[in-house]
Amino acid sequence: MITDTSAVTITEKARMKVDSLMQEAGIAAPDYFLRVGVKGGGCSGLSYELDFDNESKPGDMEFGDDQLKIVCDMKSFLYLCGTELDFSDGLNGKGFNFINPNAARSCGCGESFAV
What we know:
The protein is α+β, with helices and mostly antiparallel strands. The chain has one domain (about 10-115): HesB-like domain (Hypothetical Protein Aq_1857, Chain: A), CATH 2.60.300. Helices cover about 20% and strands about 40% of the residues. The protein is built from 2 helices and 9 strands, in the order βαββββαββββ. The chain has helices spanning about 10-25, 75-80, and strands at about 10, 35-40, 45-55, 60-65, 70, 85-90, 95-100, 105, 110-115. Strands 4-5-2-3-9-8 form a 6-stranded mixed beta sheet. It has a 3-stranded mixed beta sheet with strand order 1-6-7. Strand 8 (about 105) and strand 9 form a beta hairpin. The longest helix has 14 residues, at about 10-25. The chain is globular. The mean pLDDT is about 85.
């Protein structure tokens, strides 16, 4: 696992939400992990992806700790290097937020970005 500043990290608030969603889905770590990724599309050109998975693929990058493993494919890691995943439930919006130092701009909804 990578543990330096290039890692994809998660805030405590986002971790608590992920734990809650895993419980609702009837799944648990360490059998399942959080897969983050990037795909083409969205109003800014690239969109973030979040899902639960239980199968690693060749070339996957792994981050996290014993409580929650975060996995992304190598192509997505090139865009997500140093990104922090946060969760907001305030009046200005609710959901997961990617704090991505590589994004040159992002759309108003926060679900897509450009480099």
